[in-house]
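Title: Prediction job returns without error message
Component: structure pipeline
Severity: low
Priority: P3
Assignee: unassigned

Description:
Job completed but the reporter wants confirmation the result is attached to the right record. Sequence as submitted:
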Amino acid sequence: MTFQEQILQGIPANLPSKKKYPEDANRAPKRKDILTIEEKQLAIKNALRYFPREWHLELAKEFADELKEFGRIYMYRFKPNYKIYAREISEYPAKTSQAAALMLMIQNNLNPDVAQHPEELITYGGNGAVFQNWAQYLLVMQYLAIMTEKQTLHLYSGHPMGLFPSSKNAPRVVVTNGMMIPNYSKPNDWEKFNALGVTQYGQMTAGSFMYIGPQGIVHGTTITVMNAFRKILSKDENPNGKIFLTAGLGGMSGAQPKAGNIAGCITICAEINRKAATKRHEQGWVDLLIDDINILVSRTKKAQENNEIISIAYIGNVIEVWEKFDVENIFIHLGSDQTSLHIPWTGGYYPADLSYEESNILIKDNPAKFKEEVQKSLKRHAEAINKHTQKGTYFFDYGNAFLLESSRAGADVMAKNNIDFKYPSYVQDILGPMCFDYGFGPFRWVCASGDEKDLDKTDEIAAIVLHEIMENSPEEIKLQMQDNITWILNAKSNKMVVGSQARILYADAEGRIAIARAFNKAIAKGKIGPVILGRDHHDVSGTDSPFRETSNIYDGSKFTADMAIHNVIGDSFRGATWVSIHNGGGVGWGEVINGGFGMLLDGTKEAEEKLENMLFYDVNNGIARRSWSRNDEAIFAIKREMKRTPNLKVTIPNLVDEKYLKNLF
């Protein structure tokens, strides 16, 4: 059968042969054995719903074996035999180009070059799933192939509930992931219901089909590292020869060494999984692999002496590096951590003094002991960091729940008031006031033609547009504008494309709309093929996350999620091709609500109207909320936007003199 015929058949007519898992695959960690016998039977019953009854006898035992071995039912037998990657949009069998765009993005998320655990349909973060199982993938691709412009596909945590009548202006797909009843949104709850096959953790751009490989956060990481150095260095200093120490090279965290190279420092990134570190080295994202702590010390000292710009992956535990550098008196300028601490007990963070293999055995055979070892290591990790910060190291939480889980482990990470953390999140100190409050966030696009030349042309178009906008930009945002112009001019030379021909760029509403409009005109003139717009959920208004995206909201509302819900609803009727809303993101299930979108530009007038309406709201919804919380930069930004857009009327806060609050209670 051809690729197109396989897509159109959905669940195959004949039961395919059982497959062997590839021995060299980067396997997802085994999940917790949390179901009772009755619940395990229910999980099998749920899984068999996708298949004809005559297959049930054979599949029941196979799915039971998967549940025992992996803690999940992935239905690996049904993984298609064709290669999964982002094809040129015209290669997909579809009645509407919008549906074909979605098929392209789904396959990009599951491309082995892009995905962290592709066999288990996990894109990044250890458990950020596109679908729960391969039957869902097959059905979704089939539904997209037969969809018309007057239908919408509704996905419940990976499950295609079906095609429903809608309208041409409605989103083609609506996605939800992990949306639990609040009282049933605790770690054991989501482990249980995920194992039952009734929900999944979609992370952010994994379950909304907008992941573009580690490039997706390189720009944000670069901005963070650059501005972190700006905070601690004098104006005439540069980051050359100065150290940024962090951890994590799987999925999203793999962007760190590349960002460090662009920022111009020495990046040392520890990774316990040799396969993950090797993959990043082979892809050119990290310069050097070292697995001996003494060699790391000598090579680091050499890099400092020569003011080098270099990225080093240390294959081992980051705690060793913090402790060894303390003994060797190696000064660390910036410190952070980007391991997957949103899933600390299932392989998101590995304890010191245990090998990667030993830890994985413990996760499976003695999860209580593994949790104990992780918490012991978190205390040790924090103690080592504290020694360095006393010497002047600037440490910031990278929104991966490091401080949150360290505090739960009893580590010394709390401020004197025993309410706040002693170290800021990067959003509090850097991205919040410098970017999000002004409306700057991770706008991204994918060239649906798959042609590298199209990507080059979009880079050129974006650079021209940004230069034009910068001529009239106020002083408050000139630094952000210049950083982004520098970024886009050097984007190709940094060799960041993995999978689809995609690019990311921090921009505000004015920039996003102007760039998208220019793309649409270029498409209409035949200069480039169709373009798919999107963004990271880690953005101005896409995410309510009290320990990350909204951690610089100080009016007491950072634990509310109205902004993210309004974002997905508002985007859906303003022209998005697809929308998504998730419970859970980079800091964990139950800790965040986040949403995203995708939009196909096809050169039509309708596309231009949609992009203007939707991109405007997608950004300014967040600025309005940040303004209402009394963030000075956001108040400036929303007042400026109201002057530019007479149809926008936003409630502005009246500021209160602190003296009126004294002695009231």
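Comment from assignee: result matches the submitted record. Residues 267 and 311 are 5 Å apart (CA to CA).
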